[in-house]
Specification:
The protein has 186 residues and is α+β, with helices and mostly antiparallel strands. It contains five helices and eight strands. An eight-stranded antiparallel beta barrel has the order 1-3-2-8-5-7-6-4. The two termini are 27 Å apart.
């Protein structure tokens, strides 16, 4: 089962986050075979030295919801109070690949997390036509995997507005766009 996990940073927790970076990476290394995508969301464009982390995205393939909860809430930053909340949802890997399979590589161009939250009739289930810029794409689902709750996308785009346009705007209660970069050890 695939899960989308987004830990959102608590204001003022940057120093603690940096202090725990090696513990975070070591924890994530334990899930390297299950990892579909990972990386921080940032202020700014994700390329400057002044960018500050605002969250941490992990998309993982785990046996069940209990394993996903253990993954999300056992993370050292979560345990230490770095994060203000965690969004954990079932997810479906529509592209059928990991971020490391993305033809555009680890760098080059602006990258974004696009998070569309909705209810009701599902939207954007099919891969958009310009999939060359998509790093990860799939629906957010209820715990039982039946009900559609939104869409999560990692992508390369020229700007936040272009990233937002990957989703059908009027089908979501809210669409968030965050600067994002490939995570993990180089």
């Amino acid at each position: 089962m695939e899960f989308f996990c987004y830990h959102r940073d608590r204001p003022g927790s940057v120093a603690l986050r940096h202090e725990l970076l090696e513990e975070h990476w070591s924890y994530m290394d334990r899930y390297s075979r299950e990892m579909i995508a990972r990386g921080p969301t940032l202020t700014g464009d994700g390329k400057g030295d002044g960018d500050v982390p605002t969250g941490s995205v992990h998309i993982v393939d785990l046996p069940d919801a209990a394993a996903a909860r253990e993954f999300a809430f056992g993370e050292p930053g979560y345990q230490a109070g770095v994060y203000r909340d965690v969004l954990l949802r079932r997810w479906r890997n529509v592209l059928g690949r990991t971020m490391w399979d993305f033809p555009g590589g680890r760098s080059g161009g602006d990258r974004y997390l696009v998070l569309g939250l909705g209810t009701g009739r599902a939207a954007d289930l099919a891969v958009p036509p310009d999939q060359d810029e998509l790093i990860a794409y799939g629906p957010l689902l209820s715990d039982d995997g039946v009900s559609w709750l939104g869409t999560a996308v990692l992508m390369r785009a020229p700007d936040p507005d272009a990233a937002r346009a990957v989703l059908t705007a009027d089908r979501y209660a809210d669409i968030e766009v965050h600067s994002w970069q490939f995570g993990g050890r180089s």
